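Ticket #4471: structure output looks truncated?

Reporter: J.K.
Steps to reproduce: submitted the chain below (385 residues) through the standard prediction queue, then opened the result file.
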Amino acid sequence: MSKNKKNDLYNILLGQLLSQDEGIDAEILTNSALNAIRIASLNRNFPIFSNILSKASKDFQRNNARLNQIVFGSHFKNPLGLAAGFDKNGVGAGLWNYFGFGFAELGTITWHAQKGNPKPRLFRIAKEKAALNRMGFNNEGAEKFLKTIEKQQIPAPGNRPCVLGINLGKSKITPLDEAHKDYSLSLRLLAPLSDYAVINVSSPNTPGLRTLQGPKQIKKLIRTLKDLSNCPPLLVKIAPDLSNQEIDEISRIAMENGIDGIIAINTSLNRFHLTNLKITTGNTLEQEDGGLSGLPLQKRGIEVIRRLRSSTNNDLPLIGVGGISSARTAWERIVAGASLIQVYTGWIFEGPNLVPEILDGLTMQMEKHGFQNIKEAIGSEEPWK
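Returned output as attached by the reporter:
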C-alpha cells in the first residue's frame, strides 16, 4: 500500500473527526481504538489477525540495523516509542511492534485500581495539534495489569520484538508520605514483566504528585525502589514546568542514586500562546485544569533535554517526548541529546504512518551527515538538512 493510500484511509476513517474539537468525545475514540487493539493482541497468532498484522508490519516497520542501539541494557530496534498514557492497561502489549515502534511504555499504572477524574477529561485542540487531559491515572490497578499481560503471552524481557517499559504512578488514595510504599508494591509485582520501569512523579492530574519531584521525596522514592531485589532499569519522568535549578537538582540526585535514565517531558500546566483559546467546555485553556500535550510543547521539550544533557554531563540516557510530530522534530530532539524518543499526541493526529515517516527521516539525516549509527547523532546538534 502506498503512503498516499495509507494516509487517505486514515483520513477517511478518523481524519475528519480529529480535525475538529467538537464531535465524538476524544476519550470515547481512544477507548474504541484500544478495544480493537486488545482483541487483535489477544488473537494475533490466529490466521485472520496474523495476516492483517503481517501486512501492517510491512507498511510500518523499518528493519534498519543503523537504527539499533543498546540503552540501559535493552536492545532497541529503533529509537521511536509509544509514550505512556495511551495503553494504560497494557491491552496492546503484544501488538506495538507491528506498528513499527521500537518500544512502548505501558501505563500509568497504580497499585490500587482507580476511575480517575470526572468526565469529560480529554479534549482535542485540533488546529494546534494539541490536547488537554486531566485523566487522573485511570487504570485497572497493578494486579489486573499483571493478568492482562500474562493473558497475551508476551515473551520475557530480552526476547521481545519490542521493548516494553512500565510507567508507575501513585494511587490517589495513598497519602503522599506513603507514596514510596505504593510505588514499591506495584514495581515488586510487575518487575518481572518490565524491560524498564518509570517513576512518574510529574503528572499534573493527581493532587500533590509533583511535590514528589522535590529533593528529599524523590531521593526516598528512588532508594526504596532501587532496594528491591528484582528492580529493573529505573527511570524518572519529569515535568516541563520545572526551573533550570530544579532540573539540575533532579539530575544530581538521579546520578547519585543509580537512576538509569530520565524521560522529559510530561504534560504542561503552562498554556504557552494558547491561554485565551476556548475548548469545547466553553472555557479558555487558562480556566481549565489539566496538562497540555502536543505541538505547543516542542520548544520546551528541546530546552529540557539540552539542560538535562548538560547537567548529567552527557552520562545518562534521556528519552525525549512532547511535541514530536514529524521526522524533523524527532531528529531535533535526538541531536539535542535524547537517546530515544516517544510520540503520543502527534501519533494520534498524524496517523500510524508517522512512525515509518520518522524512521525514514532519521535514516535520511544519518546518511546526509555521514553517521553510521543513530548513536552518533545523539547530542551532535547537527541541523536538519
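Triage note (M.O.): checked the attachment and the full C-alpha cell line is present. The chain has a mean pLDDT of 94.
Status: closed, working as intended.
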